[in-house]
Design a protein that fits this description.
mainly alpha; globular; 0% strand
Length: 81
Amino acid sequence: QRQLRFPGLFAKLKGFPSGAEKQIRRDLHRTFPEDPLFAERGGPGQTSLFHVLNAHANFDARTGYMQGMAFVVGFLLRYVD
């Protein structure tokens, strides 16, 4: 439903500076490091993980980014195409 109300929102937010980029990038390689999807630095899994976390940090600036979010998002990315 939200996607219908805000078309293209994710595409905009994922690349917009959130102020949390440095912290997010620092945590990427720590998130499921043995999982082939996330093992490659700068690979497609880590890139997707960064985009979702950065978009969320922009969308909900009050919450921003917290380290534990990477595992929740990583789990979801593992099973959602």
